[in-house]
Write a structure and sequence with these properties.
alpha+beta; Serine Threonine Protein Phosphatase 5, Tetratricopeptide repeat; SH3 type barrels; five-stranded antiparallel beta sheet
């Protein structure tokens, strides 16, 4: 009877050991196929000049739900090396959402744009819009949100200081005016970005915008790869887009790609 118990215990121990070993092996395999591993593989492929393979590795990271500025920056560089300027600009735009102040990203983005014939005319840009872009344009959405929170906190502290330390009314008003101006500036930028989240796209290949959503329709104007457009509406595989100069037309949806689809 004692022998049977020993055999049973030994069998249970063997099963548990095999399960633990299998779990460890599976964990190691999962770790080997994790985002960091694919990122390293992508970098190695890029270094070897295998740009399409590098993009495949980077795309696997996106499929796992992981995105970042360096990831999109590397994808943009790989597309640029392949001569796909539109795709490169698309991914540089995506990277800028995460790392807007990165000097290498900005330099590569500007160089890619210089190789295209995009329309950049913007009618009636106000002084406020120019200041907003210069001051707030290099902040991420998270940084803008934190800045707004800190401004509200600072306004509250200034109010308490004015009450308990008898600040001059003029000093308190001046503080509130400065904080209010910066608050409006940052809030305006945040609202603009939120509104543009689902609408801004990049033309990935040279195309023609038409007056109507059908192949036989008359061509309205040409669109160049890398051009940023606003999507107004979508109908059965066609997208009505608006260019920077406010011209609008219909284009096949497959020829544009949204910037913020992740």
């Amino acid at each position: 009877m004692a022998m049977k118990v020993y055999k049973t215990h030994f069998f249970i121990y063997l099963v548990i050991s095999l399960m633990a070993f299998s779990g460890l092996a599976a964990g190691q395999e999962a770790a080997a196929d994790g985002p960091r591993d694919f990122f390293v593989k992508g970098n190695l492929s890029y270094k070897d000049g295998q740009y399409a393979q590098a993009i495949e590795h980077y795309d696997k990271i996106i499929q796992k739900g992981k995105v970042s500025g360096p990831l999109f920056y590397n994808i943009g560089n790989a597309y640029f090396k392949m001569g796909k300027i539109g795709k490169a600009i698309l991914n540089y735009e995506r990277a800028a959402r995460f790392i807007p102040r990165d000097h290498d990203l900005r330099a590569n983005h500007q160089f890619a744009l210089s190789l295209t014939r995009t329309v950049n005319k913007e009618k009636g840009r106000s002084f406020f819009a120019v200041i907003k872009k210069g001051v707030v344009g290099h902040f991420t959405m998270n940084e803008i949100f934190i800045a707004l929170y800190l401004m509200l906190l600072t306004a509250g502290l200034a109010h308490l200081c004015a009450l308990y330390f008898c600040w001059p009314k003029k000093l308190f008003r001046n503080c509130l005016v400065v904080l209010g101006l910066f608050f409006l500036l940052f809030m305006y930028e945040m609202i603009g970005r939120v509104k543009a989240l689902d609408h801004l796209s990049i033309v990935t290949v040279n195309a023609h915008a038409r007056f109507e959503p059908r192949e036989e329709a008359t061509t309205h104007f040409a669109l160049n790869e890398g051009e940023k457009v606003k999507v107004l509406r979508e109908v059965e595989g066609w997208s009505k887009i608006q260019r920077a100069d406010e011209k609008a037309g219909w284009i096949k949806s497959g020829k544009i790609e949204r910037i913020t689809q992740f």
